[in-house]
User: Fold these one by one.
Assistant:
Number 1:
Amino acid sequence: MKEESFPYQQEFTDYLEIERGLSDGTVEGYRRDLNIFTQLMVREFFPQGMILDQLETKHVRRFLVYLKKERSNDAGTRNRKLASLRSYFSFLEIQGYVESNPVQQLKNVKTAKLLPVFLTKDESDRLINAARMHNKPPYRDYAMMRVLLQTGCRLDEMVSLNLDSLNLEDRYMRIIGKGNKERMIPLTDKTCAALAEYLAGRLPEDKNEQAVFLNQRGRRISHRGVQLIFNQTCKEAGLNKERLTVHKLRHTCFTMLLNAGVDLPTIKDIAGHENISSTEIYVHVTQREIRSAMAKHPLG
């Protein structure tokens, strides 16, 4: 299906960026979700263009069925797209552009509560070593893997890093996270060394380019680009775990910190979690490891 812009697209994205302070990556996710919704509505119900006042709950329900059966989206992905629609129609209601909200009656799909996937210390070392061995100077991929694993930053946060976000002399990185909230994350000696080596050979297309991590054309690397590099590095490291994505390096970082004795409130601050309940899931992960270890007790 060809991309279809949705009504009041610019106003809505401006609202997300300015009033809600969302990152470029998050705003792009909203835009992409709403484009998919609009495409389906035009294809199946409104060939002359989507009419907001004629949208009903049945249309949104059809969208959810389409996501499941034709796009094979899991429950979590469908819930995220439904959340995008909720935000959009709430905005339209506030602005007086619609009188009714077709999403209001719909509830999230129940999802299985899966524990986070993460790499062990050995697997993390293999990933870092592969990024170094199969990379050429200035070892960009090696620096990226170290940043992701050491800081636990989100993919969008790393892609959005600018040169003035780094202070290698004082060894910290400034991150603008969800809700436009800023946090400072200390950098280890090895991560600083990897970044310094990469930055010394960094080749931007434009001398005014501020992005830390660049693609082969010398421009800011994309989310998709990082995921492809990660996938290739996993293959080279012999890692074939299910559900393994760049985001799982964030889980790996916090699980390793917890296992090393770092307390939950500190991990919460490093992660940029608004609520400590988001951090507590890593306790379940470590408890699973403890239970597994205890199962090997010689007394049975």
Number 2:
Amino acid sequence: MDMETVIRGIPLFHDKDVSCEPLNGGLSNETYKLTCEGKAYVLRVFGRQADYLALTRGSEIELIRAFHREIHSPAVLYADPGETFAVLEYIEGRMANGDDLLDDERSRRIVTRLKEIHQSVDIAAVSARPCSPYQLVERYLSGADRLHVKRPHGLSPLLTKMEQIAYRRSFDKTHGQRFCHNDYYLFNLIWTLDGADLVVVDWELSGVGDVFFDLASIPFTNRFTPEQEKQWLHAYFGYYEEEQYAILQDMKYMNMLRECAWGLLHSGMTHNQVNHDFNYYQHAERVIERLQQGYNAF
């Protein structure tokens, strides 16, 4: 996609000088910082991932708009009618990092923001976006199959365990069917410059899913100790039970398995992206190796 042509076609920038530079990150989509008349914007060019996940870009844009009203997420300034890109508010600030998890107040705010997401959207309003951890894995793998990606050796037994987890979680109607972000990692959280607000970005995978899947995302990528995980659960629920800890371990496993399936799909998709260089298939193989070794985190 020619960025100059895209930018010229955006009403916000008609007959104006616009500078464009790639932003780091975005392994599923491409993101650019646009600057026009001294003001910054984000141009998000959608990848093909959503085509395989039964999640429309139109519904994603509507969710971003809803969360901009309810909790701070970037405003949608322009959405391409063809659903190929969107212009979003540029948030001046810094990405959340591991140091935030060591600060009691900032860690509490990260958990609180997640809880607000789970409580702020009526499931009836988003029931057209079912997106459980199991559906994510199945859709990624189905897409990879369609793209003739060879499934790595050792994947089948891991999927059998997924079915067992899905069965156990099917009885939890309180936390197993709630609106979830499904990509709640530190790199999708931005502190505003004054530290007063925590902005959540990248709602592509959001939908009705499992609260514990969201809860497991940060612990599994930041190598929490068992004690840290128990404190994390207590911060969210206001109390701690051993059953919560067991469910969190299952959802860390599901986060790992999602990473594997995600890598397989993207290894089969044609990429010509400017802001990363990543071997998706090797990533999937590494995840399988870790799971076979009994680990549910990187």
Number 3:
Amino acid sequence: MEFLMKLIKDPPVIIIVTTFWSGLGYMLKRYIAIAKDLKKVYSDLETFEKSNMSYRYEEFKQILMSNPCTARPFEQFKDALLFSDTIAFQDTEDSVEFENVSDRVSGIQSTVDIPYFFNEDSMITPHYNKNFLNSFPELLTGFGPFFTFLKIAEAFGKLDFSSPEALTKTVAHFVGDMQIAAICSVLAVGSCLTFTVINKLMTSLMLSTACEKVVEKLGSLFGITTTEAFLVDLLKTSKIQNHDNGTILKSIPKAFSTSIQKDLANVIMPYLDSLIFGVNNLNDTMSKKSDNGDDLGGLF
């Protein structure tokens, strides 16, 4: 019991244990915060589909820009997006139809694979001090031999060779210090291995899985195309629009003629009919007066 209390109060042991728990606490605090942000952005993206990305893009952009894990990679990712709109045209039968830019293009396209921008290095690593965290296993590994040899030197320094009786009394303390020196080495190496294993497990279970879900969801929202393929699609679109514009221009004279004829039939013809009816009545009146010998000079 006395040896255990001495071990607990030993400064090298306290330094090793404090270093281990400090590194573990920092790791858990940062990993939990990052995992929370990744889960939040994934839950927000679950309502999005590839078919509605065109008109929900601004909402999508706001979600990614407001999340610290996706804001920085999205700034670069948005420059690789190509927007393809649906065009409307009128065929020869005057029925409105819709045609996409290409059969293989729908919504918003990306010219670069999603994992190039959204990955662990861009979404996870910038949000904790990786070098600082990786320094804890190195510190623990260094503390092992350092404190071991320090305790050994201290133990030899306490030996009293002045007399056999004094040497006998200090041997017990020497053995105890040598045990603590060995425990310091074992404790430091064990803490280093434990810290490394916990770090790997936490990274895999909490961060990598959540990051893969976000990347997979983003990949399902955007089609992948090349710049050359997109330019070919734009050329096809231009040809379709030119053809449709030519068809519309050719139909304008016929439509104008039909409209004029319709207006003449519906508006002008009734007035002409009334005018002809009045002229006929006038002719009848003049004929009757002429037959009766009336003077027609007063009519003109």
